[in-house]
Amino acid sequence: MGIRKGTSDAPTSDRGDSVEVQTRPHAFSFKANPDNPLNETIVDAVNRMGGIGDDAEALYQAALEALRKQSKRVVAIVAAEYKELPEDQYVDRWSLVHLLAELKDSSSLPVLDEILSSQIPPERSKHLHSFSTVGEEIIIRTAAVEAVTRIANKNKKALEVLLKHAQHKNFSIKRASIQGYLEQGDKDAREVLAKALPKKEHYILDIRRIDVREAPQAEGGLFLASRDRDELPPPRLSDKREQE
Amino acid sequence: MATCTASVPNKNASGDNLYGAVICDQVYIDYFWDAYGFQGNSAYWKNGFGWDDPCNTNLPLARTFNACYLLTYSADDYLNESWDSPILNWGRRYVRNNIDDLRSKCGDGTAIARSFPGGLVELYLGCWYSKDVPGRAETLIHESRHQGGKPHNANFPAGSVFGAGKSGADSTWDYNGAWMYGALYLWWFFAAGARTTSAMRQRARDRGNLVIDNAFATHPGFSI
Fold first, then answer.
1. How far is CA B179 from CA A59, A223, B175, in A?
2. Please, what's the largest Cα pairwise distance for chain B?
């Protein structure tokens, strides 16, 4: 398996940089209890989040199901592990918070509130346009808002957490918390939020989650540097070969 | 010529690990190499970037192929790439049509990707090791929009994580700029992405909302 050595690619002088990649088995340390058999199940579920193919969701849900049976114990492990992860492991930190969202166990409320209340570390990136570490921190926290929102369906305490963070100083966290509260709160939810928020922020109450089909779309076929025609292989070659 | 290092977990949620078994087929490798601007740039994908090991999803080339796969096959009706269909369908075509040369470099740690006149896009270390697969696809869409001749036209709003008050924002959603294309792609992926998981779609939603909240001088007034 390799890249075809096309005429346009050879011979060439060596113009590129070089990179050395080291691999680790997985992202977590499980320092508190390295021998807990649940650790492996958590790693599997997190890994399955990035699944691909027609069976990806089914495999992911099967991995979650194994955790849901012991959700309180899993929440405790995940909460401890989250605190151990280095700040710059943004995807891994997000994956643990999303796991809490999937479990919908109210025992995760304290750690979710803690994540949302924690100070956002200063920006580490020097080129914010393409990558903002504060942006990654906010993605983790809006995932935490989603986790609280899923619990708030039948949980007053979760609603209180949402109301608290509806007053967060970061716009995205505030916006997500407001939307979560409006979604799960009772008929007075809007009134409660209006009282809690300064008047200049009342416009956020009108920022609605909408379906992508309702949003203004990009018009295809415009602003093209060139046009091409390529023959596209099917998404699973093995499926096609089995049929042949 | 720079030298850089990266450390990656074999198992995490980025989406890279499980793509490996799928993209590791000569037909895909040939297709992606030819279609997405790699051709003629092999020198930039050697020296550890993956030219000699294109199935190894720990390396930049396979991680870029993963993004190419996502772009190519995330619409349920992936054979339809008509410009009249959603961006989920034609996003890949837009990238193909606008990126002539796709190159990998270490970068100086400040950017994930940069676009240069004439169809050249460079990807840097953070693109493969800080971003997940949908995020990488968004980067390719965003840079393609610049190649298509649409620069940013506004300053970021107060409180923006992308640099409040600094240039680089799009004025509005209707400006149809690079931020809108990227966010819209993520939004469609969240709403209708195929051959993926609900977790990856949720991750796309979180990133899309970050863009909507922070990259437009005037907030569009909706969210994902």
1. 33, 15, 10
2. 48
The interface predicted TM-score (ipTM) is 0.93
Please report, in tens digits, the pLDDT of each residue of chain B (224 residues total): 889 998 887 778 888 877 877 888 999 999 999 999 999 999 999 999 999 999 999 999 999 999 999 999 999 999 999 999 999 999 999 999 999 999 999 998 778 899 999 999 999 998 998 889 999 999 999 999 999 988 999 999 999 999 999 999 999 999 999 999 999 999 999 999 999 999 999 999 999 999 999 999 999 999 99
* In chain B, domain spans: 16-214
What own/partner pairs with CB < 8 Å and gap ≥ 24 does A229-232 have?
A230/B31, A230/B34, A230/B35, A230/B96, A231/B31, A232/B31, A232/B72, A232/B78, A232/B79
Q: B153 to chain A, minimum CA–CA distance in Å? A: 13
Q: How far apart are the first and last CA of chain A?
A: 22
A179–B18 C-beta distance less than 8 A? no
- CA A95/CA A206 separation, integer angstroms: 30
Backbone dihedral angles phi then psi of residue B122, each to the nearest 5 degrees: -105, 135
Which helix (H) or strand (E) is B199 found in, with range?
helix B198-214
Q: With an 8 Å Cβ cutoff, are A208 and B103 in contact?
A: no
CA B93 → CA A222, A230, B80, B133, distances in Å? Answer: 12, 10, 10, 18
Torsion angle, alpha carbons of B136, B138, B139, B142, to 10: 170
Flag whether the pTM goes above 0.80: yes
Phi-psi group of A90: left, alpha or beta (phi > 0 → left; psi -120 to 50 → alpha; rest → beta): alpha
To test the contact with chain B by mutation, choose from A52, A104, A142, A229 the residue with the greatest count of B C-beta atoms within 10 A, namely: A52
In angstroms, the CA B209 to CA A57 distance is 23
Q: How many helices (H) and strands (E) does chain B have?
A: 8, 7
Inter-chain residue contact A50 with B16, CB threshold 8 Å: yes
Helix (H) or strand (E) holding B122: strand B120-123
Phi, psi dihedral angles at A43 (to 5 degrees): -60, -40
Peptide bond into B220 cis (omega under 30): no
| Phi and psi torsions of B104, nearest 5° | -105, 140
The answer to whether A48 and A60 are in contact (CB under 8 A) is yes
Identity of residue A86? P
